[in-house]
Write a structure and sequence with these properties.
The protein folds into four domains: 91 residues, 3-Layer(aba) Sandwich (Rossmann fold); 63 residues, Dna Ligase, domain 1 (2-Layer Sandwich); 132 residues, D-amino Acid Aminotransferase, Chain A, domain 1 (2-Layer Sandwich); 78 residues, Alpha-Beta Complex (Glycinamide Ribonucleotide Synthetase, Chain A, domain 4), CATH 3.90.600.10. It is an alpha+beta fold. Strands 10, 11, 12, 13, 14, 15, 16, 19 and 20 form a nine-stranded antiparallel sheet that branches. A five-stranded parallel sheet has the order 3-2-1-4-5. It contains 13 helices and 20 strands.
């Protein structure tokens, strides 16, 4: 059997986790990652090409005879890496730029949801602060205020009164954000449904419970994610089926009618507002940084073959379901208030616990250093939630750096 070469495009935690996961696949000879982060060099060869330099990435893929390129990076997707590669007969797992607009831009997501009559919080999209202020004066509190494009440096704020909301809006426009999205904050249980699709057929493979606030008890800053667990036992099979019927299928069909089929992984971000009721808050064009390893640990199928089937167009013929295991997985994000602090205790973490790096660096002594913000994700899989939680937090305590912050209540009481 000819072994495969894989190129992964991106530089953060999800690309790190994916590269590490695929490096263990016996079918794969070598994993390249462009540009990757410092830590990913432990199991993949880093390539010094920017993730949005699609021409150079294409030239590298052709030269090295890459079997499959996987592009989780939003920057690569926006640069239409899928279109470039497909036009040059290079196999790639990623959605096209036009198809993925609604998953990358929060403003486009909100418009898309509204057009398809999918339940989503009341919202406004603004390019000028004065119009946003007028909207806030008559809006129902609390409000979630966000930038249009979502990345590690983007802002998400839950504002409980008009003055806070206006201050947040003013700050964003002072930062020269082109668009600000203001929407009603929905109370309930946040979760994400992930599906795999070739643009015509879609199959669900994970329901993930999300922890977005920084402090225990859902207090403090509203982040991109401080923890997760798979499977989400709070989300029933009826809810998943309803989301497939009323959200995923209409989205897939709408894009197909526009001749922009979406091929890849699509995440639907939701809030469970009742036992079987939900509101859709947005989309993500791949697995999210903090839950990638947890989702990968839940799969009981060959991920490379899944990606390959989508890329070559045989997905609908080859798969009627995506198999998952019956284990429980928890993920906890370690956040750093400081940049450049030495991380100790990594060698003390059990082999059964996966460590995922966001964008750590190394000093002259080859010690890992923190970035400011989300720094590491620890992921633990076990037969039960309670056992996974016990093992996870034992290992979280072994890691130390100045300014360390994490949530202690992930799946507490489960």
């Amino acid at each position: 059997m000819n072994k495969k070469k894989v190129l992964i495009v991106g530089s953060c935690a999800k690309e790190y986790a994916l590269a590490k996961f695929l490096s263990k696949n016996s079918q794969i000879e070598k994993v390249y990652i462009a540009p990757g982060n410092v830590a990913s060099a432990e199991f993949a060869e880093r390539i010094d090409i920017r993730e949005n330099d699609v021409q150079s990435l294409l030239e590298f893929a052709v030269k090295e005879e890459i079997s499959l390129t996987i592009a989780p990076s939003a920057e690569a997707i926006k640069a239409d890496i899928a279109g470039y590669f497909q036009a040059n007969s290079q196999m790639i797992f990623a959605p096209g730029a036009e198809a993925a607009k609604f998953a990358i831009s929060r403003a486009n997501a909100k418009k898309f949801l509204y057009k398809l009559h999918i339940p989503t919080p009341k919202f406004g999209i603004f390019e000028k602060s004065a119009l946003a202020y007028d909207y806030v004066n008559n809006a129902k509190m609390p409000l979630l205020i966000t930038t249009d494009m979502d990345n590690e440096n983007s802002v998400r704020s839950v504002c409980t009164n008009i003055n806070l909301a206006k201050t947040c809006i003013n700050d964003l426009f002072l930062r020269e954000e082109p668009k600000v999205v203001v929407e009603e904050y929905v109370f309930g249980h946040p979760f994400t449904i992930y599906v795999m699709t070739d643009g015509y057929c879609a199959l669900p493979f994970a329901a993930v419970g999300d922890y977005k606030f920084m402090e225990d008890g859902d207090a403090g800053l509203f982040t991109r994610g401080m923890g997760a667990y798979v499977p989400d036992y709070k989300v029933s099979l009826d809810v998943v089926a309803d989301i497939m019927e009323k959200v995923i299928n209409p989205v897939i069909k709408s894009l197909e009618k526009r001749n922009n089929p979406y091929s890849g992984i699509l995440g639907v971000e939701c809030v469970l507002t009742g036992e079987n009721t939900y509101s859709v808050t947005g989309f993500t064009p791949f697995l999210k940084e903090h839950d990638t390893q947890a989702v990968l640990n839940s799969l009981d199928t060959d991920l490379y073959r899944l990606f390959e089937a989508c890329a070559v167009g045989s997905f609908a013929d080859d798969y009627t379901e995506i198999s998952v295991n019956d284990l429980s997985t928890l993920a906890c994000v370690l956040y750093s208030r400081k940049e450049g602090s030495v991380i100790t205790g990594l060698e003390m973490v059990d082999d059964s616990t996966e460590i995922t790096h966001f964008s750590t660096n190394k000093n002259n002594y080859f010690e890992y250093l923190t970035n400011q913000g989300r720094t590491l994700v620890l992921t633990q899989t076990a037969s039960t939630i309670s056992r996974a939680r016990e093992l996870l937090y034992d290992n979280v305590e072994d890691i130390y750096f100045d300014g360390k912050k994490y949530r202690r209540d992930i799946c507490e009481g489960s």
